[in-house]
């Protein structure tokens, strides 16, 4: 099969995988396409954790004998162990498929490379690496978790050209346009948890939900409020809406009692340490909750503290074609003192997207050499 044909059907498999966007955590998004040269025979995707995998879904659609000339395209290496579902490698072998093309290898140590080995041992021509980067990008959280053993902390910023996120008083609605904000809602649907600082919660009164499609989706919503400022704003949406049982407030020991007395019993209040200890606390809390990723939307004080602890792993940076040119306006973050540009925090594996007049740059955070933490 030509590389062009393989890439075409892998792109289709990626599109199919996206149908499971936000519903598979902690499992990955996976799409599968069974094609015979220029024709799609069947396709499937992983819909929900614990449900049938993409390969099985596709094979169930096809009735009869699979042609010898057919190829199964899968965005992620087929699993090779029995868990809540049977091994996909065995389903592929039993279906009589002669060729399998994989996008990205599975970073789960139980499966990495083993699925391909099993298929090849069964006489199946199995290859990997077709549109590998695009397939890996489907599963930022999954790959990060299995490579590092911990949750991914992602930060989101929306700025003017001169890097401002809000005016001095905190007003930020709206710096970016509707299409950028719709994309933010897509990522809110992808991440199982979202966080903001108390100042942002008070200034914007956000719902922190994903409002796409017929139903709103609410991730776990974390508000960093060490001093207990939210007690003066008991009617905020995150404290009173129908999803308030998804809200968690991180407070200091001193503020715990006053916050606990004011907010609804359905809202969780959790004691959180101060500066210098936030990263380890947050990662431990996420691990205990079984959450493999968090999307931190600001504001600048919270971002500054996270960057100071080298806690941010991934950045979503939306930029609008606007200029404030106001030194009093709020920056993305601050607190670092550089003597040379080589000390800058950089992004790698970058992706560039356009939403109306806005730009999105997203990528993996890399801290200056010699100053990284694990």
UniProtKB/TrEMBL annotation:
NADP(+) binds at residues 158, 174, 200, 204. One of its GO terms (molecular function) is diaminohydroxyphosphoribosylaminopyrimidine deaminase activity. It catalyses: 2,5-diamino-6-hydroxy-4-(5-phosphoribosylamino)-pyrimidine + H2O + H(+) = 5-amino-6-(5-phospho-D-ribosylamino)uracil + NH4(+); 5-amino-6-(5-phospho-D-ribitylamino)uracil + NADP(+) = 5-amino-6-(5-phospho-D-ribosylamino)uracil + NADPH + H(+). One of its GO terms (biological process) is riboflavin biosynthetic process. Binds 1 zinc ion. SUPFAM superfamilies: Cytidine deaminase-like, Dihydrofolate reductase-like. PROSITE patterns: CYT_DCMP_DEAMINASES_1, CYT_DCMP_DEAMINASES_2. Residues 4-116 form the CMP/dCMP-type deaminase domain. Pfam families: dCMP_cyt_deam_1, RibD_C. The keyword Metal-binding applies. Keywords: Hydrolase, Metal-binding, Multifunctional enzyme, NADP, Oxidoreductase, Riboflavin biosynthesis, Zinc. Its EC number is 3.5.4.26, 1.1.1.193. CDD domains: Riboflavin_deaminase-reductase (cd01284). Pathway: Cofactor biosynthesis; riboflavin biosynthesis; 5-amino-6-(D-ribitylamino)uracil from GTP: step 2/4; Cofactor biosynthesis; riboflavin biosynthesis; 5-amino-6-(D-ribitylamino)uracil from GTP: step 3/4. Zn(2+) binds at residues 53, 79, 88. In the C-terminal section; belongs to the HTP reductase family. Converts 2,5-diamino-6-(ribosylamino)-4(3h)-pyrimidinone 5'-phosphate into 5-amino-6-(ribosylamino)-2,4(1h,3h)-pyrimidinedione 5'-phosphate. This is Riboflavin biosynthesis protein RibD. It comes from Puniceicoccus vermicola.
């Amino acid at each position: 099969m030509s590389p062009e044909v393989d890439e075409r059907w892998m792109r289709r498999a990626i599109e199919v995988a996206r149908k499971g966007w936000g519903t598979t955590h902690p499992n990955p998004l996976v799409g599968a396409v069974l094609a015979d040269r220029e024709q799609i025979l069947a396709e499937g995707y992983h819909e929900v954790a614990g449900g049938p995998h993409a390969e099985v879904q596709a094979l169930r659609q096809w009735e009869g004998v699979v042609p010898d000339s057919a190829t199964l395209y899968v965005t992620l290496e087929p699993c090779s162990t029995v868990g809540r579902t049977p091994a996909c490698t065995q389903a592929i072998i039993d279906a009589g498929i002669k060729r399998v093309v994989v996008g990205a290898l599975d970073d789960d140590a139980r499966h990495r490379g083993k699925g391909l080995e099993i298929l090849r041992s069964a006489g199946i021509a199995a290859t990997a690496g077709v549109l590998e980067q695009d397939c890996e990008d489907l599963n930022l959280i999954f790959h990060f978790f299995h490579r590092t053993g911990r949750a991914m902390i992602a930060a989101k910023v929306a700025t003017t050209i001169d890097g401002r996120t809000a005016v001095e008083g905190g007003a930020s609605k709206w710096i970016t346009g509707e299409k950028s904000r719709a994309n933010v809602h897509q990522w809110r649907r992808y991440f199982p948890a979202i966080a903001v600082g108390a100042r942002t919660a008070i200034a914007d009164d956000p719902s922190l939900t994903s409002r796409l499609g017929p139903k709103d989706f609410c991730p776990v919503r974390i508000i960093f409020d060490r001093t207990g400022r939210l007690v003066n704003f008991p009617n905020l949406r995150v404290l009173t809406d129908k999803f308030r049982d998804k809200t968690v407030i991180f407070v200091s020991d001193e503020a715990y009692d006053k916050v606990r007395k004011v907010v609804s019993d359905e809202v969780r209040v959790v004691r959180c340490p101060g500066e210098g200890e936030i990263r380890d606390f947050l990662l431990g809390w996420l691990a205990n909750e079984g959450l493999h990723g968090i999307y931190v939307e600001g504001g600048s004080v919270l971002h500054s503290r996270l960057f100071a602890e080298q806690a941010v792993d991934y950045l979503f940076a939306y930029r609008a074609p606007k200029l404030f040119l106001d030194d009093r306006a709020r920056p993305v973050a601050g607190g670092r003192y550089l003597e040379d540009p080589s000390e800058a925090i950089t992004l790698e594996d970058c992706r560039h997207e356009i939403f109306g007049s806005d730009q999105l740059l997203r990528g993996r955070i890399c801290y200056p050499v010699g100053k990284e933490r694990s």
